[in-house]
Amino acid sequence: MYTFIAPEIKQQSFRLDGLFSPIKGFENEPLYFVELQTYKDEEFYERLFGQIFVYFRQYKPANSDWYAVVIYDRRIHETPPHPRYQVLIEKHLRCIYLNELSTRAEDSLGVGIGKLFIEVPTKATSLAQQLINQARENLADENLQKKVLAFIQAIVFYKFPNLALEEIEAMLDLDEFKNTRLYESILEKTKLKLVPKLTERTMSIQEIAELLELDVEIIRKYLQEQS
């Protein structure tokens, strides 16, 4: 049995802890909402998911995918989310428990990932390289290792949006980096920078697409945005 009502929804102001949002031209990359939680909050996930969807409504980002990354100092401070959020949890939620990493002799890795979010650029490079080496050495689970390395890649890329592809490759020192969507997106952006010079040489869009190994529509869209 049901009863039909029309309840009023009051919206409160809020500020997200952090958001890694891809720069222009990388709209195919996911958004990363980052929250640091160090105390027990019965309404944490209600508030987190509510804030994320209010953000979507207000800013209307073009990105089709997103993740909520929650960094807990310890698991006891996590209140299990309600079953109604199960679909969101399975697809979009990623949790890091720093104290559990510590008990597995991975303290510097867990704490380091947390620090990487707020580290100044002059120190972030060496920290990222250190974390990559530690992830390879300390994480025996291959799937977990790949997830952690991919997460470090994303943090580094969004902290250094102005770096060239070669600089990011050198910084990350990851052979597997070339097999990721992130690498493909950066490579595509690097190639697109050559398009204006090639058009000046009276090359057609089709010729440019064949030369750069890019889709014709990608090049056409890029030229429209530049005009």
Count every beta strand, where a strand is a DSSP E run of 2 or more residues.
Answer: 4
Mean pLDDT comes to 78
- How much of the sequence lies in strands comes to 5-15%
What's the story with the biggest beta sheet?
4 strands, mixed
Q: Percentage of helical residues?
A: 40-55%
Calculate the terminal CA-CA distance, rounded to whole Å.
59 Å
List keywords for this structure.
227 residues; four-stranded mixed sheet; single chain; 11 helices; alpha/beta
Structure description:
The chain has 227 residues and is an alpha/beta fold. Helices cover 53% and strands 10% of the residues. The protein contains eleven helices and four strands, in the order E-E-H-E-H-E-H-H-H-H-H-H-H-H-H. The protein has a four-stranded mixed β-sheet, sandwiched between helices. The protein is globular, with a radius of gyration of 21 Å. Strand 2, helix 1 and strand 3 form a beta-alpha-beta unit. It folds into two domains: 18-175, no CATH class; 194-226, no CATH class. Helix 4 (107-116) packs antiparallel against helix 5 (121-138) and helix 5 (121-138) runs antiparallel to helix 6. It has helices spanning 44-59, 86-92, 98-103, 107-116, 121-138, 142-159, 165-172, 181-192, 195-200, 205-212, 216-226, and strands spanning 18-20, 31-37, 66-72, 93-97.
